[in-house]
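Bit of a strange request maybe. I'm writing a small parser for structure token strings and I need a real example to test against, not something I typed by hand. Could someone generate the tokens for this chain?
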Amino acid sequence: MNKIIAIFIVTLFFRAGLCQASSDYEIQYDPVGNNLFPGYDNAKLVVDYFYTEGISNSERYSYEIIVVDNMLMLSFRSPETEDYYKINFKTKRTLTKKQTASLSSVLRRSRMKQIKDGMPRPYCSGNTREVLIIRSKELNIAGGLFYCGLFDSDDTKESIQKQIQSEEKETSSIGGNYRAVFDLLDSFFIEKKGLLKKVYRTQ
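Reply from user aminoacidic:
Good idea to test on real output. This should exercise your parser:
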């Protein structure tokens, strides 16, 4: 399942010379297959959140958070490169009743909807990309967002954040409060903070 999702998926880190402003490009959206979760046809809820970040196609790490009913599956991957240590982490556990209730509540209040078909394709190798796929009786979402940009050395944090938010909004194929869903799922991945501390060779 992870390999299938990873084909499509993938929002923070850019260096000068790697990207051009999004207004120079027509954003492409790749189609999404129907059978993304083989073996889970009878599940009442499937949520898949995938995140990847890097400055090139090879210099990037990714993690994935999957919920199938009350089962939580987590993975984190980074390659062996000049900047990264190789990490291949996987685990799964049962969601608590509180976590299950929180997810149900956030999904209900998020008012998410599909606003464009497909997954947005980054137009530069240095990109950060997020994808959210949901299959339930109430929701059928398969979309994502990314940003690429040229940041000058004299850009302020405020101007960079404004550009990031603009590109995320421009590229997103889903609407509603998806960020609340991302944040909640991230909170389930309690090992992620420690993994991120280990991934970089130099801090």
